[in-house]
Amino acid sequence: MVNVRKCAMIGCGFVGAASAFSLMQSGLFSELVLLDANRDRAEGEAMDLSHGVPFARPMEIYAGDYDDIADCGLIVITAGANQKDGETRLDLVNKNVGIFRQIIPEIKKRGCEGILLIVSNPVDILTYAALKLSGFPAGRVIGSGTVLDTARLKYLLGRRLNVDSRSVHAYIIGEHGDSELAVWSSANVSGVELHRFCEMCGYYEHEKNTQGLYENVRKSAYEIIKKKGATYYGIAMAVRRIAECIMRDEHSILPVSSLVEEHYGLNGICMGIPAIVGSAGVEKVVDIGLSGEEQLKLLRSAEALQKVLNGIDFSEA
To answer: Residue 317 — pLDDT band, cuts 50, 70, 90?
Structure first.
């Protein structure tokens, strides 16, 4: 039986610990179990987090093993090798698929009926790997996708236009990586078409400005890694937001990574595409309007991911 108020965090590195901290503060769960290849690390993080419970809401936080996750409503996986300075997310493929070959069968063995939320990079490849290795229904395997990339774009646009970023409606879609694309054709600020709003704010060189913003979004992770070694606060907030959609059955639309079938001319691939997210996981992929150029860029992004997937043998799944 699934305990929807129980969450597991597999991987207690920078991202896992920050995500656990974010979830602890959210009040979404009453129980959080931490797993890590280094048991001492999981126990230390559990102790540290537990000491903050008196400032939050009642919650049991502890280090455990795979037997403890059998009834979890949500299982968040952040385990894997970290992206190093100068390394792309796709460079992590072989190392982290190997790690998932160890983790996912353990989850499958316990007959887990909760939702898998994949955060480890390259997230689109690993979401597909988790889907194949687990045998779970497609809607119950979700990747963090381009949720963080989209937040970065909204933040930068809000700062540029001096408007609350929550009033900015724009998406980054495709691979969570170098081939991702910004959907400018449908971007708006509270219903006002983006270019028109920009002109209201005195910005007229639209192509130059939007390209600059896109480049800042695409390069931001590399910049953060170069300056501080890893990114974790932003993605931790993205994990919390996705968890909120699931736990509250919000039916919110987020650009998560999920299996795309017969949308945008794509089939059998996981990537960041807007989808309705609720208590059952991904309920429906949403076809947002794309320009011809954006459609081509999305197909190229899918091709880059497919090329990597073609080199991975999932026959033992």
So the answer is: very low
Taking alpha carbons only, the member of 269, 253, 267, 264 closest to residue 297 is 264
% of the chain residues with pLDDT over 70 = 98
Q: Give Cα separations from 152 to 34, 168, 184, 221 (angstroms).
A: 28, 11, 14, 10
Dist CA 113 CA 117 (whole Å)? 13
d(CA 22, CA 16) in angstroms, rounded, equals: 10
Domain annotation for the chain: domains and CATH numbers: 3-143 (3.40.50.720), 147-309 (3.90.110.10)
Per-residue pLDDT of 149-173, as tens digits, reads 999 999 999 999 999 999 999 999 9
Any alpha helices (H) in 73-204, and if so which ranges?
Answer: 93-109, 123-134, 147-161, 194-200
Please identify every residue annotated as catalytic.
176
What's the pLDDT tens digit per position in 236-276? 999 999 999 999 999 999 999 999 998 999 999 999 999 99
- Which residues on adjacent β-strands are paired with residue 171? 183
Strands of the chain, DSSP E? 3-10, 31-35, 60-63, 72-77, 115-118, 141-143, 168-173, 181-189, 192-193, 252-254, 257-263, 266-272, 275-278, 281-285
Q: Measured in whole angstroms, how far is the alpha carbon of residue 260 from the centre of its chain?
A: 15
Complete edge-to-edge strand list for the sheet that includes strand 181-189: 168-173, 181-189, 192-193
Residue 264 region by backbone torsions, left for phi larger than 0, else alpha for psi between -120 and 50, else beta: left
